[in-house]
């Protein structure tokens, strides 16, 4: 036997002994070379470049861990609910048609769940009131919320730590198999940042790949035009707030749902404690809006027709009503055809490609 073969046999035996002798959690630590694979987030050409966190670079391993956690029911107290239970892909990751989401033991939350896509444009805070500054801060909130998953972070960490599969996933993503809340939130942030929506009919028209019908085109003009009483061009003024390629300025605003005496949920003010923020909520993106009903922070409107009627004739005055709405507070008097056109335009924002993308599905 020559030396080379002897060497190969002896190293193989050593390796085999090493693999057999160590218990599952230590075996991952034996791998000397910890290496992650960078993930390049690609967005369609008509969308602006994503704003990604510099301190949490996307990697295939981080995303894989985030995905496992997103669909993990152990994150809830009684093992019945995962993030995936309240955020359905076919509904742009909002809850199905529920007004308020249902957590453990059938407990009901107090706000309508928000969709998840193009999170890399949300630079002004998460949730309806913006109380989470970064996506990663947002990601662990539901675990300890008694109305959602009702579990403690400590228990979750222990549960995950006791599973070999998770120790391996954490090791692969971060080079260390110890489960921590920070690593969990970073991994979930990575997974959610990969949800891209930019292939609706609207986007295809922008890129010259499709054409609007006459009705959709009239709806688009209404959406992007100022409302001017008596003027020649009639607009519905939507673009002031539902602006930019993501159809939201991501600001907190009062769009006239209630008068002051009717304020039930103080929205942004609940977090900032400033009366000037009373009843202000984050302007939602209108991408995929056809599948995210019911609408508004409290899910008060079941259909988009009702939403359009709200802006057309239902604006209520209050001290924090947005200035951009003041112009339409006495009603826009849209014709039936105009309402229909506006709806037709909103329906062009549905992105089937994103809604069915296999990459985001639980395997
Ligand atoms: C002053 C800013 C502003 C203007 C102008 C505006 N919106 Fe909104 N819109 C908002 C805010 C803020 C919300 C969320 C309010 C809440 O839930 O309390 C919202 C919610 C919505 C929703 C519900 C989305 C969801 O996921 O629940 C739709 C649909 C919508 N707006 C469409 C329109 C249309 C169509 C127009 C034009 C006719 C328009 N908006 C004009 C600020 C505005």
Beginning-to-end CA distance, first to last residue = 48 Å
Biggest beta sheet attributes? 2 strands, antiparallel
Number of DSSP-assigned strands: 2
By secondary-structure content and strand pairing, the structural class works out as: mainly alpha
Poorly predicted spans: 5-31
Topology:
Layout (H helix, E strand, L loop, with lengths): L2 H19 L2 H7 L29 H11 L12 H4 L48 H10 L8 H9 L2 H11 L6 H13 L7 H6 L7 H10 L28 E2 L14 H5 L8 E2 L21 H10 L9 H4 L9 H12 L4 H5 L7
Antiparallel strand pairs: 1-2
Helix pairs in contact: 2-7, 3-7, 3-8, 5-8, 10-14, 12-14
Bound molecules: heme C.
Brief description of this entry?
With 363 residues, the protein is mainly alpha-helical. Helix content is 37%, strand content 1%. The chain has 15 helices and two strands.
Describe this structure in words.
This protein has 363 residues and is mainly alpha-helical. It has two domains: 24-197, Orthogonal Bundle (Cytochrome Bc1 Complex, Chain D, domain 2), CATH 1.10.760.10; 213-347, Cytochrome Bc1 Complex, Chain D, domain 2 (Orthogonal Bundle), CATH 1.10.760. The protein is 37% helix and 1% strand. It has helices spanning 3-21, 24-30, 60-70, 83-86, 135-144, 153-161, 164-174, 181-193, 201-206, 214-223, 268-272, 304-313, 323-326, 336-347, 352-356; strands at 252-253, 281-282. Strands 1-2 form a two-stranded antiparallel ribbon. Helix 10 (214-223) crosses helix 14 (336-347). The longest helix is centred in the first third of the chain and has 19 residues, at 3-21. The structure holds heme C.
């Amino acid at each position: 036997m020559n030396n080379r073969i002897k060497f190969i046999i002896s190293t193989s035996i050593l390796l085999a002994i090493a693999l057999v002798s160590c218990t599952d959690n230590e075996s991952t630590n034996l791998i000397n070379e910890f290496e992650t694979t960078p993930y390049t987030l690609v967005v369609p050409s008509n969308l602006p470049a994503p704003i990604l966190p510099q301190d949490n670079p996307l990697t295939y391993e981080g995303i894989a861990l985030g995905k496992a956690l997103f669909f993990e029911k152990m994150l809830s107290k009684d093992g019945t609910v995962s993030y995936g239970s309240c955020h359905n892909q076919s509904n742009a990751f909002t809850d199905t048609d529920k007004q308020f989401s249902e957590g453990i033991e059938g407990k009901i939350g107090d706000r309508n769940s928000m969709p998840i896509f193009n999170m890399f444009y949300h630079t002004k805070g998460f949730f309806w009131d913006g109380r989470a500054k970064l996506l990663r801060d947002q990601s662990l909130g539901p675990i300890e919320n008694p109305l959602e998953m009702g579990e403690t972070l400590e228990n979750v960490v222990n549960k995950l730590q006791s599973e070999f599969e998770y120790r391996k996933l954490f090791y692969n993503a971060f080079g260390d198999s110890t489960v921590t809340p920070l690593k969990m939130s970073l991994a979930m942030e990575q997974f959610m940042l990969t949800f891209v929506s930019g292939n609706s009919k609207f986007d295809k028209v922008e890129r010259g790949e499709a054409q609007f019908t006459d009705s959709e085109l009239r709806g688009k003009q209404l959406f992007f035009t100022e409302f001017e009483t008596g003027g020649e061009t009639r607009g519905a003024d939507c673009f002031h707030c539902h602006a930019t390629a993501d159809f939201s300025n991501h600001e907190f605003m009062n769009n006239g749902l209630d008068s002051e005496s009717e304020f039930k949920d103080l929205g942004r003010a609940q977090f900032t404690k400033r009366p000037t923020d009373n009843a202000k909520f984050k302007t939602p993106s209108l991408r995929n809006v056809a599948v995210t009903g019911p609408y508004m922070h409290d899910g008060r409107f079941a259909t988009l027709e009702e939403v359009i009627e709200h802006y057309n004739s239902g604006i209520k005055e209050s001290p924090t009503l947005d200035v951009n709405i003041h112009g339409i507070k006495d009603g826009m008097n849209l014709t039936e055809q105009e309402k229909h056109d506006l709806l037709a335009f909103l329906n062009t924002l549905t992105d089937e490609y994103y809604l069915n993308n296999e990459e985001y599905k639980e395997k």
